[in-house]
Amino acid sequence: MKVIIVGCGRVGAELALQLQQDGHEVTVVDKDPKAFYRLGPGFKGATVTGIGFDREVLIRAGVERADALAAFTAGDNTNVITARVARNVFRVPKVVARVYDPRRAEIYQRLGLQTVSSTAWGVSRAMQLLVHPELHIAVALGNGYVEVVQLEVPPHWVGHMVNHVNVPGEISIVALTRQDKTSIPTLGTVFQDGDRVAIAVLASARGRLEELMALR
Fold first, then answer.
1. Are 198 and 150 in contact, with CB atoms under 8 Å apart?
2. What average pLDDT does the segment 109-132 reach?
């Protein structure tokens, strides 16, 4: 896969190196040529100096045959404009933009633009470690607004149905592992001792999940 990364800061450089390690063809764009030093001598991809949303710069970077583009500069506006040019003008199939302001991230996602908000994810992760350390978060979705939590069912759940735990719009059992076999439970599935479950939960509803688990 040919990938263009716009922005060679710490995150952009690390992403470029990991993609290269996985065998992808990587081109990195940054307005400051000194930024490319972060890639180190082992980087075998291409570098292009220029502003990421400039069409001529993107063409030099190979955007017309790119499979994906990640806009990871330090500016939200630059990232969003770059992503929109890549998607709407050059029809790059996969485009993602880093957005620091989580409020903007929600707006852009409603417009169909894939975003990554390190701010929202960081706050959500810190809350989990400080306030809810008992819950193991397997996956964070939508910049951390929805999480998939894995846990062994508490003893007082045994004998009760999934429907007794689900909270519409907030908490939902999405998978159940019993004797090394994983399935998608129905609302009438009855918990047994030793069951492990994966639960989709709104980050704002973690407290309610803990109450259901009797952790408080």
1. yes
2. 60
Look at residue 99 in the predicted model and tell me its pLDDT.
82
What DSSP designation does 27 have? E
Under 8 Å CB-to-CB from 131, ≥6 apart: which residues? Answer: 206, 207
C-alpha–C-alpha distance, residues 129 and 3, integer Å:
34
Domain extent for 139: 121-213
Residues 83 and 125 grouped into a single domain? no
The number of folded domains in the chain is 2
Q: Are residues 130 and 24 located together in one domain of the fold?
A: no
Which residue from 149, 120, 121 is spatially nearest to 137, judged by alpha carbons? 149
Residue 39, token pair as written in the block: 């890639």
| Chain segment 18-37, per-residue pLDDT in tens | 899 989 999 999 999 999 99
The count of C-alpha atoms lying within 13 angstroms of the C-alpha of 53, restricted to the half-sphere facing its C-beta, is: 15
Counting every residue written for the chain, the total comes to: 216
